[in-house]
Amino acid sequence: MLDDLAYINQVDKSGALDIALKESDQLLHDFNFAYNGGVVKNVVYAAMGGSALAAALSETWPGYNVPFEIVRDYVLPNYVSSETLCIISSYSGNTEETLSALEDAEKKQAQIVIITGGGKLKEIAEEKKYPLLILPAAKQPRYAVFYNLRALLEVIVATGISTLSNLDQLQTVSEFLRKEANNWQEIIPVRDNLAKQIALDCIGKSVVIYAGPKLKPSAYKWKISFNENAKHIAWTGTYSEFNHNEFIGWSEQPVDKPYCVIDLRSDLEDKRIQKRFELSDKLLSGRRPAAIRVDLRGKTIVEQLLYAVVLGDFVTLYTAIAGGINPEPVELVERFKKLLTSQE
User: Fold this and answer.
1) Sign of the torsion formed by the C-alpha atoms of 31, 35, 39 and 45
2) Nearby residues of 235 by Cβ (< 8 Å), 6 or more positions away
3) How crowded is residue 254: how many other Cβ atoms within 10 Å of its Cβ?
4) Domain 16-170 belongs to what topology?
5) 211: closest CA among 284, 260, 146, 269?
6) What CATH number should be reported for the domain whose range is 5-13+180-322?
7) In this predicted structure, what is the pLDDT of residue 185?
């Protein structure tokens, strides 16, 4: 079925696969951001759902030389002050938790930067003249993660909160990702298409994605994409914390548990993390479904980090399509938001 192009086009009504194929181009979008604020001693990134993904990715690469925290809540930490850079991000611009966090940032007199595609956040930024980065249009926020990442990286460079001094590397990364994505497009048959192969193993199962600390953000992106693209429940776990609790959860029979286990493996992780993967697989053999090992390609951590993101997008899109599900709509989320607003 995943080699039937007519079937794929019939199910993928919004062209999500084509969006995934081209998403690396988003890394080259120039926001022309400049910053003239004060001294920054710590950073808070307030966002929910897919809008927080860019921040999670940035913790691995390029990282920060000041304390950094992602806040998925209505309120900000008590330490926020005039020396805090608060990056407020919502693709829609109307996320209620994020709008509340902005109000809290204003009360705490923080330095504010806004990343959004429109809505109330854009209106507030323009009215109050906050530094503003406007995300290009996308059919769903999860399809604009690399736009969001590029915007955040421009803020990072402009404010000097990382050792990253320029964005020249993104050209090479974008080209690498586009080349790899060509291997997963719909015209590539299952026998040669890693994304299709993994998807066929995941249909109808709860998916658990494991990674080491450096690839943890990519594993979380897989989780979100399984939820929203494939409409599958999914979880993530991180080594070495896995070996201190969750490891035991797999230890009893039956082995035929209704799960699909995926290990995102990086040769750039600490050798001790790599050893933990090997020992865990050995000791859990016969106790859990055999893990699908995904060896991430790329010479640098940013290449592997984003390679994993793009691969996960293709895997989850194919999982949806194989199940006859249009991957784009998230109707239940939209209904929930309307009900939440109507009951206030």
Assistant:
1) negative
2) 206, 207, 208, 209, 223
3) 7
4) Rossmann fold (3.40.50)
5) 269
6) 3.40.50.10490
7) 97
φ/ψ of residue 156, rounded to 5: -60, -45
Separation of alpha carbons 307 and 293, rounded Å: 15
Residue 326 to residue 282: CA distance in whole angstroms: 38
Rg from Cα positions in the chain? 20
Residues 6+ apart with CB under 8 A from 300: 173, 268
Over residues 323-332, the pLDDT tens digits come to 999 988 777 7
Q: What is the Cα–Cα distance from 303 to 320, expressed in whole angstroms?
A: 26
Instruction: Spell out the domain ranges in the chain.
Output: 5-13+180-322, 16-170
Structure confidence by residue, pLDDT tens digits, 209-236: 999 999 999 999 999 999 999 999 999 9
What is d(CA 213, CA 217) in angstroms, rounded to the nearest whole number? 8
Q: Is the pTM of this model over 0.85?
A: yes
